[in-house]
Amino acid sequence: MKLARKASPSSGVASLASWLGQTRVRVTSSTPLGSHGLLSECTRPRASHRLTMSWFRSNEGQLPSSTNNGMSNNAGSAGYARTSSASAQAPRGYTAPPPVAPLRPVQRQPVDYASEKSGLTPQTPQGVRSPRGRPGIYAVRECPSQSLPLTNCLATSEQDFPPYTYVKVKDSFVFTTIGSTLEPGCIGPARHQRTWAQLSFAGAGDRVPVELFDVQKQLGPDHLLGSITLELSLKNGTGDFDAEQLESRFRKQFDSVMFTVGQPLVYEFSGVIFQGSVKSLNVMELHGGGRGDSFMGILMAQTECTFLKGDGNFKIKASSKRAAPNAIIQPNFKFEDMGIGGLDAEFSNIFRRAFASRIFPPGLVDKLGIQHVKGILLYGPPGTGKTLMARQIGKMLNSREPKIVNGPEILNKFVGASEENIRKLFADAEKEYKEKGDESGLHIIIFDELDAICKQRGSTGGGTGVGDSVVNQLLSKMDGVDQLNNILLIGMTNRMDMIDEALLRPGRLEVHMEISLPDDKGRLQILKIHTAKIFKNGIMESDVDVNELASLTKNFSGAEIGGLVKSATSFAFNRHVKVGTQAGIGDDIDKLRINRSDFMHALEEVKPAFGVAEEELSAVVQNGIIRYAPHIDAILRDGALYVEQVRKSDRTPLVSVLIHGPPSAGKTALAATIAIASDFPFIKLISSENMIGYSEAQKINYLNKVFTDSYKSKLSVVVVDGIERILDWVPIGPRFSNSVLQALMVLLSKRPPKGHRLLILATTSSTSMLHDMQLYDSFAADIPVPAVDNLDSLIRIVDDVKLFRDQADFKRAVQLLQSARFGEDGRFSIGIKKLLGLVEMARQDPSPADKLVSGLLNTVASIEAMR
């Protein structure tokens, strides 16, 4: 009698002879070794390996009555099936099947493939052929051969189930059957199959239900595996194994075998036997053309097989054509779900620099000989979304739960404990990298307020040197002797200038991304995020226009926009508080709506930290600008031209203008007017009033902070009022602060970062002093502001401020000024600020004309005396 049998791949004739014992084997190889030899109507034709074996006695050609170990060949023993004439008792409880014809090779039938696209499983017009076999209660016996476990199929008798039939054991575990020498009514699971299904052959052996598994009914049309992920372990042996060769051999060896998530298996490759398990499956969606998650499916020749390294001292060489199995990006990730507005460009740059190399096949990256980016530094003003972006990046990545370090919490009072805390952060990554190498998962460490623990070495006081030791420990862990390629450190800071330079070099925190204030488009996105639920639930009134709000919130950070929305809702809540109470809610709470006026009130309440210093500027020009002479209009026109130069010119991102003139000539008011008219989002006034009591170092830090803040806005204006007062200059001596002078000279000449523009308007009453200090040459242009030095200008100023109630008093004042010959001899010169003070004093007198003229005469006499 001839039986077609599947042999273990690459095991050869010797391994078969070892379990055949005294039986003589005739092996005819009609095709290469290594695939199914048992034919079935349930399987499709394929180029496979076939072993045709015939058992015969030396003279009669009959099957032997005992196995090579001399034991009686009862059902379930590791021997060969008896002939039909041999007497043997059937297992208890087993109902003998009806007599069947002698077993003969199954003839292959013509097969129709489902389609070229899926084209894999034998189909009829009605779908997969109905399974054939004899369900019932079966006795568990030992696997009858040492080679059958390598097939990962369930050994059965061919009289019970044709080879490659899908059966369900204990109503839970699905196996693919394979013919063996077991007697009818028995199954012979291998050790890993018994462990998985909790079966035992000890004693009388378990008796379990075995039923046919109808693939079409149980799984539907989508049951062919598009991809399978397996974890392989190797207890004994070492070596490097190519992932593509492992995949090719696995597909050939286990074609048409059913696999389940969590199922253990054994896999022989080039004489090495791996133990493995199924981690995940994806089935082909034949109608949709995609892939979907599943817990069970049939392997086919086109299935993508991915191998993960488990336990053992071996290495799987990554494929250069397929992405890493442990995908770095969550498969269901969508950028719009991150809840980050105004940072599209920044996120794209971060993805390109830090994550693009991680989504490509590791084999290709290895060919390039590059290392993945290990660190990202996010810096920028407070409230711009640095922490939010780091948190969302952690959610986006398919990695372990990020370890978050909140600044100084890493420090410890005990000696060496701070450095130990740094080592603990990297301990898990180091352990996994030693075990799995490049296949280990990504470990993310997030440092918030990094400048608190990574200051420049040698800059901190004290004799302990803890800060320096922490920095040294972090540097060695990120890019020391033992390099790790499975970590990503994300640091956040407002003060990048304070961080040690060694931490910022490539190989450590090499990606530096500025998270700056959002532009109009970014503010619109942030507003839509913060008001999405309000609009969705119909609580927002129709008069609210988020585009208008985006234009009105210049230089607002993301956090400040969120505060603006909360402030607006507080005004809406306040309308529904019961009158006379602070905790009672009105009965019309269901009519709660947020309207435009709520946002307008909120804009008055919430001010941006990097916006326009409106109060300071308004105090400077509270009386407005009196256009008493043509040169005032010329000054304002020139100032507007400098504003447009900064706004539009690509060649001059920095323009510094010196506005000079005699004291009280209105220089500060003109500079503030030009700054306000520019409509730039950042306007800051620096004056000596803000630095009273400051030391030289404090003044330098203050100046540097204002200019540094100006660089964070795309368009900025800085007004430096009274340079001589800031420099502590006095003509007696002369005396001034050289340190502040040098710092100011550097800041006036320092170009802003790329894409940022800065206009500097400085005022002084002593140009000769600036010439002597060589500070005058630091300005690109200058605008002179003369004092009031003629009678026509004086008359226009008096008329503009409406000093006199009737025209007669005004004419009398003009006659008095003309009779005093003001401005005729060139001696008359007064600052407009001082003149306006005299006018307001004269307004309080019963005879304002006489008081004004007398006041002017006294002022002119004082000026003459000083000369």
UniProtKB/TrEMBL annotation:
<dbReference type="Pfam" id="PF00004">
    <property type="entry name" value="AAA"/>
</dbReference>
<keyword id="KW-0547">Nucleotide-binding</keyword>
<feature type="domain" description="AAA+ ATPase">
    <location>
        <begin position="653"/>
        <end position="789"/>
    </location>
</feature>
<keyword id="KW-0653">Protein transport</keyword>
<dbReference type="InterPro" id="IPR009010">
    <property type="entry name" value="Asp_de-COase-like_dom_sf"/>
</dbReference>
<dbReference type="InterPro" id="IPR027417">
    <property type="entry name" value="P-loop_NTPase"/>
</dbReference>
<feature type="region of interest" description="Disordered">
    <location>
        <begin position="59"/>
        <end position="136"/>
    </location>
</feature>
<keyword id="KW-0931">ER-Golgi transport</keyword>
<dbReference type="GO" id="GO:0035494">
    <property type="term" value="P:SNARE complex disassembly"/>
</dbReference>
<protein>
    <recommendedName>
        <fullName>Vesicular-fusion protein SEC18</fullName>
    </recommendedName>
</protein>
<comment type="similarity">
    <text>Belongs to the AAA ATPase family.</text>
</comment>
<dbReference type="GO" id="GO:0043001">
    <property type="term" value="P:Golgi to plasma membrane protein transport"/>
</dbReference>
<keyword id="KW-0677">Repeat</keyword>
<dbReference type="InterPro" id="IPR003960">
    <property type="entry name" value="ATPase_AAA_CS"/>
</dbReference>
<comment type="function">
    <text>Required for vesicle-mediated transport. Catalyzes the fusion of transport vesicles within the Golgi cisternae. Is also required for transport from the endoplasmic reticulum to the Golgi stack. Seems to function as a fusion protein required for the delivery of cargo proteins to all compartments of the Golgi stack independent of vesicle origin.</text>
</comment>
<dbReference type="InterPro" id="IPR039812">
    <property type="entry name" value="Vesicle-fus_ATPase"/>
</dbReference>
<feature type="compositionally biased region" description="Low complexity">
    <location>
        <begin position="65"/>
        <end position="81"/>
    </location>
</feature>
<keyword id="KW-0378">Hydrolase</keyword>
<dbReference type="Pfam" id="PF17862">
    <property type="entry name" value="AAA_lid_3"/>
</dbReference>
<dbReference type="GO" id="GO:0016887">
    <property type="term" value="F:ATP hydrolysis activity"/>
</dbReference>
<dbReference type="GO" id="GO:0006891">
    <property type="term" value="P:intra-Golgi vesicle-mediated transport"/>
</dbReference>
<dbReference type="InterPro" id="IPR003593">
    <property type="entry name" value="AAA+_ATPase"/>
</dbReference>
<dbReference type="GO" id="GO:0005524">
    <property type="term" value="F:ATP binding"/>
</dbReference>
<dbReference type="InterPro" id="IPR041569">
    <property type="entry name" value="AAA_lid_3"/>
</dbReference>
<feature type="domain" description="AAA+ ATPase">
    <location>
        <begin position="372"/>
        <end position="519"/>
    </location>
</feature>
<dbReference type="InterPro" id="IPR003959">
    <property type="entry name" value="ATPase_AAA_core"/>
</dbReference>
<keyword id="KW-0813">Transport</keyword>
<keyword id="KW-0067">ATP-binding</keyword>
<feature type="compositionally biased region" description="Polar residues">
    <location>
        <begin position="118"/>
        <end position="127"/>
    </location>
</feature>
<dbReference type="InterPro" id="IPR029067">
    <property type="entry name" value="CDC48_domain_2-like_sf"/>
</dbReference>
<keyword id="KW-0963">Cytoplasm</keyword>
<dbReference type="GO" id="GO:0005795">
    <property type="term" value="C:Golgi stack"/>
</dbReference>
